[in-house]
Amino acid sequence: MQNFDFDLFVIGGGSGGVRAARMAAQRGARVGLAEVAEMGGTCVNLGCIPKKLYSYAAHFAESFEESHGFGWVGEAPLLNWETLKTNRAREISRLNGIYLQLLKSSGVQVINGWATLVDAHTVDIAGQRHSAKNILIATGGKPSIPEFPGSAHVISSNEMFDLSPFPQRLLVVGGGYIACEFASIFNGLGSEVTQLYRGHQVLRGFDEEVRGFIAGEMVKSGITLHLNTDVAAIERTADGLQVQLHDGSLVTVDSVLYATGRVPLVAGLGLEAAGVAQNAAGAIQVNDQYQTSVPSIYAVGDVTARVQLTPVALGEAMVVVDALFGPPEGKAPRAMSYDFIPTAVFTHPNIGTVGYSEREASEKFGKISVYKSDFKSLKHTLSGSTERTLMKLIVEDATDRVVGLHMVGADAGEIVQGFAVAMKAGATKAIFDSTIGIHPTMAEEFVTMREPVKH
Questions:
Q1: Catalytic (active-site) positions
Q2: Fewest CB within a 10 Å sphere: which of 198, 324, 329, 365?
């Protein structure tokens, strides 16, 4: 029987990799983990966490303005961009340390460096080889920027948190959630933001009504939105970056953010040498247990390009740990379901969604009923803001089950999380109707909508 240095070797110290390493080590496995950058991966360092912190910062400008309607008098304070960057960096550094300490206290051997697969049971880090009974790849993804004349002048989401100086004029290219979030954030922080997207509407894949509604709210907040267009070329001039669009028009800005998609981070991993199969886009192919074409090698998270969300990577990691080392005593091995995954988009206002869009539900279930409420929240009756809230339920007629729930409004992510539990449990519209609302809240709208707008 072959002796290995480790029972499990994890490549990547992001959400999925850290969770798998910790949980495996706690079950008595000998675990190694290699990470070349700061611990925590994209989410902690360049994604969810810093982006949400900046979103909080951006909301203060509108809050100061809205406070006048509630009797507060005085000028709003000014943003110190350098202070925000410094405070964010300090918090991220604290989280890096927590992640590292969690691994070490669990008994994981952490190795700093780039790991490359040698074969089905071996990784190489700076010339040092380590053998493992099983290997888990959790390297995540990276921004993808297309080549075009002047593409060297653009930046990705990775550089947005430490821009210097603060961009007074920002062009955001893309229509996904990353593009929309950064457009909202920098608009709130004081930039003159232009966003352009080559499609007919932002947030492809979301409910069509939600897409149109948030686009309208973003435009009302001051964002200039150009649809059905794209960048032809960028040139640096004395006045800034001159961006030529395909329709011949010009936009001059200080910075251009390209948020047009992410790709799996697989270059230099040695996948070909080890025989690990990838799809046409480079994503690692896995089965239901996240096993690759090489039985001893597994992969989870964004590197598989299934559902690119941190909590999904965490759930996938636990499936791998249970499969390799057994579930906790008295528990069944975990499985991962991709149905009714809730998610939020931290635009201004936020989007929260779980389940099917109206079109998806109609295609899957046939006859559906749609309930909708579009209103000005109680807060804005005094704030002076024109912001509106959209809430929408989609019900399968045959079973009365609520199969889609969508919200555009303040704290939508916080509100939708609880409803996701109910929907995962199979809640029907009758159960929603019999639930007492909390008054006065926006959330109560989801349990007081009685008449369908579409049948």
A1: 439
A2: 329
Q: What angle do CA 83, 89, 93 make, to 5 degrees?
A: 150
- Give every strand in the sheet of 192-197, ordered side by side: 224-227, 192-197, 169-173, 255-258
The pLDDT of residue 1: 53
Q: Is residue 44 a contact partner of residue 96, using CB atoms and an 8 Å limit? A: yes
According to the model, what pLDDT value does residue 152 have? 97
**Could you tell me which of 378, 410, 374 has the C-alpha nearest to residue 392?**
374
User: What are the angstrom distances between the C-alpha of 347 and each of 56, 153, 380, 417?
Assistant: 11, 26, 18, 17
End position of a domain, from candidates 260, 279, 310: 260
Phi, psi of 324 (to 5 degrees): -85, -35
Residue 359 within a domain? yes
Same domain flag for 283 and 160: no
**CB burial of residue 393 (10 Å; 0-12, 13-18, 19+):** buried
On whether the CB atoms of residues 143 and 262 are closer than 8 A, the answer is yes
Same domain, 224 and 363: no
In the prediction, which pLDDT does 315 show? 97
| Residue positions counted in the chain | 455
pLDDT at 136: 98
Extract the tokens encoding 46.
């360049």
User: Which DSSP helix (H) or strand (E) runs through 381?
Assistant: helix 380-383
* CA distance linking residue 143 with residue 258, whole number of Å: 9
| Shared domain check, 374 and 425 | yes
| DSSP strand pairing (389-396 vs 115-119) | unpaired
Residue 346 CA from chain centroid, whole number: 9
Distance of alpha carbon 196 from alpha carbon 250, whole angstroms: 12
d(CA 384, CA 71): 12
List the beta bridge partners of residue 26: none
Is residue 318 within 8 Å of 17, Cβ to Cβ? no
**Among residues 213, 205, 26, which one has the least CA distance to residue 103?**
26
* Token pair belonging to 23: 């949980």
Q: What is the DSSP letter of 46?
A: H
The domain of 91 spans 6-143+263-325
Contact 274, 294 (CB under 8 A): yes
Q: Report the domain count for the chain.
A: 3
Q: Give a yes or no: residue 291 inside a domain.
A: yes
Please give the biggest Cα pair distance in the chain: 77
- Positions in the chain short of pLDDT 50: none
Q: What is the CA angle 275-277-279, rounded to 5? A: 155
Which CATH number covers residue 50?
Answer: 3.50.50.60
pLDDT of residue 227: 97
Which tokens go with 70? 């509630």
Strands (E), 279-346: 297-299, 343-345
